[in-house]
User: Fold this.
Amino acid sequence: MARESGAGSEPLRSLETPDGTIRYILRRKRIKNLNLRVGSDGVVKLSVPYGIPQKRVEEFLQEKSGWIMGHLLQRQEQGAQLLPQPSREECARLLMEALLRVYPKTAPLGVTFPQLKLRKMKSQWGNCHWAQGYITLNTALCRCPEELRDYVALHELVHFLHHDHGSGFYAKMDALMPDWRERRTILKRYGAALESP
Assistant:
């Protein structure tokens, strides 16, 4: 069964297959065939003719799952293409935007909007100082796609509710961002950003 997350006319969807979870964006177009390509962010872009039922879409993805997961594995082994390094001002804007996008998920749970600090770190993407009311995000995140910045920002916000990585933390992540594990897997491909100056 597929599930949807995100907003807008083309939400990010995911489908469980025997080969692994496929994350995809579905576009209906005036075309004759079903077409797919794997984006640099690991998301499958699937174009289908108008009138094709969702069941057929999922069957098609199941049929192609071996090829898709093989392609993703090959990309993972090659490493991800880093985005250009922005200025510090642009980086601050990008990371604040990520925090603003995901904060509404935690606000109803009583999380106060934290102070955001930026720092270049070699071994972690972010950390939460819940007692002091701030989070730190790694400036290297600016070289990663938006959805990965959102994942790290939400991860740190959830630490205001659960201070460790216990079952409560993971249950809350599952509830607020169902595809967070897939995002975490993709983030591992961007490890070179941690090493870059």
